[in-house]
Write a structure and sequence with these properties.
Layout: E1 10-11, E2 14-15, E3 21-27, H1 34-44, H2 53-63, H3 69-73, H4 76-81, H5 86-102, E4 105-112, H6 124-144, E5 150-158, H7 164-173, E6 179-185, H8 197-205, E7 211-214, H9 220-228, E8 234-237, E9 245-250, E10 255-259, H10 261-268, E11 272-275, H11 277-282, H12 298-303, E12 308-310, H13 322-333, H14 337-350, H15 355-370
Parallel strand pairs: 3-4, 4-5, 5-6, 7-8, 8-11, 11-12
Antiparallel strand pairs: 1-2, 9-10
Helix pairs in contact: 5-6, 7-8, 14-15
């Protein structure tokens, strides 16, 4: 596994894991424990690459190093296969929350695509209810160990399929029972948000928030589509917004840049970018600028005032945690505790929560960092 997996998780002697964090972009089917996959696969008769949990974790990480989102997504065939029953979904959701809480997350948005979990007889609504049960059990289990965490579901539609409006209606049915937002996921290139425009129009009329994967495996037109056709309040990854930024000149003391219309719009309106450094490296999202984290446009976007947030995307596939992602950014760009606080406040302010609850979350995070 990459040496980055062993990055230092301390800043100024403070354990980053102990700090309160917000997770906006974390896929349920990308956060399974390897041992859970093994135990759920056995009664289903599913064949695995290995029956050893450590080796299985290594297998997932290795399979995701191709530098392609399409290849990266193939590993989900295995995780979704053990998430086709009520029991499987509930267990995975419960453990997902427990692992978030252990990592210091205090607000987590859990995104997943119910339409991918129907092969063993569950209906869409039954699948959502099973996940919600697991999330609530996870919150209770975390509370019993002294960890306070709240979570919400982001109901995702697969952008290359044709169930967008149906999934939007599903999300609306559950908006007061755990669902806090809508998302589209899957292969980005060739499948713009406009393909699901009827779903996004319905959600906009019903005042239900959406985030859209854009600017990961496709460029500026995908981002434009997310904003215009998807009415996106946040961008899933969004890092290729940097294609709309031109460095005019650079000297030893300063860089002078100009922003195109899309980048200016995103910056001026504080549209959050849900970046995931390790995943972005694995999928080749910023390959045009380099092949290691130093080439990630995160720091450029941060220095220019974009609302950047830090996320894991898929903890299993990237062998990561939110603590580790923050540690990698510290190592790569030399950030200090104040920078990390900014990233958490950015995420809290962009959370799909009522304004008053976002304000409470901001205060809680500031108190937690202040007491560190």
């Amino acid at each position: 596994m990459s040496d980055a997996a062993h990055a230092d998780h301390h800043v100024d002697g403070i354990d980053l894991q102990s700090l309160p964090k917000v997770s906006l972009h974390d896929h349920l089917d990308g956060g399974l424990r390897p041992q859970t996959i093994i135990e759920l696969a056995e009664p289903l008769g599913l064949e695995l690459p290995t029956a050893d949990a450590g080796e299985l974790g290594e297998w997932f990480w290795n399979q995701c190093q191709a530098g392609s989102l399409v290849e990266y997504l193939k590993t989900f065939d295995l995780t979704t296969a053990v998430m086709q029953t009520r029991e499987g979904l509930t267990r995975v959701a419960r453990e997902f929350v427990e692992d978030l809480a252990a990592d210091g997350v205090v607000w987590g948005e859990v995104r997943w695509a119910p339409e991918q979990h129907l092969t063993r007889g569950l209906s869409l609504d039954e699948a959502v209810e099973a996940v919600q049960q697991g999330l609530e059990e996870g919150v209770d289990a975390a509370a019993a160990t002294g960890h306070d965490i709240r979570v919400g579901q982001l109901i995702s539609a697969m952008r290359h399929l044709d169930r967008g409006r149906e999934i939007a209606e599903l999300a609306l049915r559950h908006r007061d029972r755990g669902a806090v937002g809508f998302d589209i996921a899957g292969p980005e290139a060739g499948f713009p948000a406009g393909r699901l425009s009827d779903a996004f129009e319905l959600l906009a009329r019903e005042m239900f928030p959406a985030t859209v994967h854009a600017g990961e495996a496709d460029g500026l037109e995908s981002i434009r589509g997310a904003l215009v056709d998807g009415h996106a309040l946040r961008l899933g990854h969004g890092i290729r917004i940097a294609e709309d930024i031109t460095i005019e000149s650079q000297d030893d003391e300063a860089s002078y840049v100009s922003l195109g219309r899309i980048a200016q719009w995103v910056k001026d309106r504080g549209i959050a970018l849900e970046t995931s450094p390790s995943s972005n490296l694995q999928t080749g999202a910023f390959a045009a600028w380099g092949d290691d984290l130093t080439a990630h446009p995160f720091d450029l976007l941060y220095q220019l005032g974009f609302r950047v947030t830090v996320n894991t995307d898929n903890r299993l596939m990237s062998a990561t945690s939110l603590t580790r992602e923050l540690g990698l950014l510290v190592d790569t760009f030399g950030y200090d505790l104040d920078d990390l606080l900014t990233f958490q406040l950015n995420a809290a302010e962009a959370a799909f929560l009522p304004l008053e609850e976002r304000a409470e979350l901001v205060e809680f995070i500031e108190d937690g960092f202040g007491a560190a």
